[in-house]
Structure formats: structure tokens, C-alpha cells
Amino acid sequence: MSKEIQIIRKSNELVEARYRLSLNEQRLVHTLLATISPQDEDFKDYIIKIDDLAKMFDLEKSNSTYERIQEASLDLLNRTISLPDYENPKRRRFMHWFSYLEYTEGKGEVLIRFEKALKPYLLQLKEHFTQYQIPNIAKFKGQYTVRFYELLKRRQAQGNGNQFWIRYQIADLRLILDIPDNEYSLYADFRRKVIEPSLKEIQEHSDLDILDCQYFKEGKKVNEIQINAIPKNAEKANKSKAKTKQPKREEQLDWMTADILDRFIGLSSANQQTVIDKVETSLKGAKQARFKAAKGGSMKQLITEFSLDINEAMMTL
Q1: Same domain, 56 and 182
Q2: Same domain for 132 and 225?
């Protein structure tokens, strides 16, 4: 597959649709989407070579990879998409990703046919669509990372090349990600296992910088999230134009460490001490010795060095 066509285009309705795919299922869908040209008027029978998919996502070319992709392609025949109707909020549309699949064992390729009902969401997109390059998602390992990335890219144009943001009710975000009520039912688990790892991967492996993530409460319960981001090329351009001296990147707290620091400061003195004690007890050897020594310095430095340990301890309160 040539680099010229490694671009994904989806209607905004599809970006905010309700569905849940495994990581390999997403990789297969994205490989297929990258073969669609903006000029295509109808779907074709698409042949995906598993070697091409493995190269695109830096996967090992092995029998186990072929087996996992074959399994993912079969599972995708049964995966459904629930699409919103922006003109009538009470109405939703349901459809499958694929209508036909053909796999010849030992051949290393899959023939796939898209469900025709998806045509308005993938073909001849002139407005209200989101696009991005596959290399910006190729290194993602989390199941939900691409969904967060797409939600951000959907709103990127609103920043006119600079800072932009997305804001969702937690309940609506769970619906988009198709996470049932009995999974990550505690907000702390949803944040720690879904939101934070996804944003961390976007920060590390995509064309977006995550500036911060804000959480809003209704009473004592967090019910809304806002994610602020900026294109990495814009951030570099803005820094080069700045007249005042900016602090070096290594001197700044990354957004996640800053978030952990804010949450720690918000704890009562008793709970702060409980967290410190738990971390110290959980650490061993030289790392425990470094922690004890760091306690004598600033809280900012302590949390910068032991952010993950402190975050895990806070999750148990």
C-alpha cells in the first residue's frame, strides 16, 4: 500500500457512533479504510494482504499474527454500529461493518466487502468529516486510544491550527465507547484504565499534544470531561514566535503528572499521609531508598519521580 493513500476519512456521525472493536479489529478496519479514495462512488471488493497490515502497524509477520487477523475479520462480520441521527435525536441507525468476507487459509490475504449502508459515512465526503493519517495511529496499543484521537481530530479545525478542545458527559463518552455499566463502573477505574492510558498514547505517538484534561463535578460526582489539545507542529511554531523565554520542556510537568499533583494536593492531610505510607511500603530496595530521600524535598519533585506509584496508591483510597 502506497503512502499516498494512507489517509482515513470518516463522517463525523461515524466518529461519534457507538461501537466497540478490539485492537486487531480496528487495525483491519483502518487498513481497509486507507484503500478508499475520495473519488470512489461505490464500495469495491477490497483485498487486504496481512503482510501489508503487519508492516503498517509494525507487527511481527508470523502465523500467530495471521491467525489473529483472520479471527478479527470473522468477528467483524458480527460487530454492529449504532449511529446518531443529528436531525432526530430519538432515532438511531444500526448496521454492520462488513457484508461479506472471504479468507483462503495459507494465502495471507482477506477479501472484504463493506456494508452498503455505510456509503454515506465513508464515500464522497465533502463536508462534516474527519480525516487523519494512519502513521499517527499506527503505534497505538490501547483499545480506546483511536476513538479518543478521532474525537479530538473531529474538533481540531475549530482551533484554526492552534489550541482546541472537546467536552463530553462521562455517560455520553461511555456510550460512544460502548462500555457497559458493569465494566469500569467506578469512575476512578474508568479514568485510570480508559481515559488516562488513551491520552498518554496520543501524547506520545500522534501529531497532537495533550495540554491538560479537566474533570467537572455535579455535587460530589464527576460527570463531565474536557480535553485540551494542540497540533504538535502548531506548538513548535508558536514557541518559535514567542518573544518571552519559555521554560524548557524538561522543566515543565507533563499534563498527567500535573493532574496527579493536583489530585494529591486536594486530599486531606490524613489521606496524603496514607498515600505516602502506602507507596513507601510497596517499594523495595533502591527505589524505596530514593523515595525516602525524596520525601525530604519538594512535593512536586516527589510526585514527578514517583507519579505512577502515587497515582496507584490514590486509587485505593
Answers
A1: no
A2: no
The reported pLDDT for the residue numbered 167 is: 92
Q: How many CB atoms lie within 10 A of CB 50?
A: 23
Helices 255-265 and 307-315: crossing angle in degrees, nearest 10, is 50
Query: If you ran DSSP here, which 8-state letter would residue 117 be given?
Result: G
Statement to judge: residues 215 and 274 lie in one domain: no
d(CA 131, CA 154): 8
Contact 136, 149 (CB under 8 A): yes
Please give the tally of structural domains in the chain.
Answer: 3
Instruction: Report residue 96 as a C-alpha cell.
Output: 454492520
d(CA 275, CA 8): 44
| Residue 216: partners with Cβ closer than 8 Å, 6 or more residues away | 222, 223, 224, 225, 226
Domain check: are 14 and 87 in the same one?
A: yes
Residue found by looking up cell 480535553 in the block: 227
Q: Give pTM, 2 decimals.
A: 0.74
CA atoms of 242 and 222, how far apart (whole Å): 36
DSSP readout, 204-263?
HHSSEEEEEEEEEEETTEEEEEEEEEEEHHHHHHHHHH-SSPPPPGGGSPPHHHHHHHHH
CA angle 60, 66, 69 (to 5 degrees): 105
Give the model confidence (pLDDT) of 166-189 as tens digits. 999 999 999 999 999 999 999 999
Orientation of helix 285-294 relative to helix 269-282, angle to 10° = 150
C-alpha cell at 165: 478542545
User: Same domain, yes or no, for 4 and 117?
Assistant: yes
The residue out of 198, 223, 246 marking a domain boundary is: 246
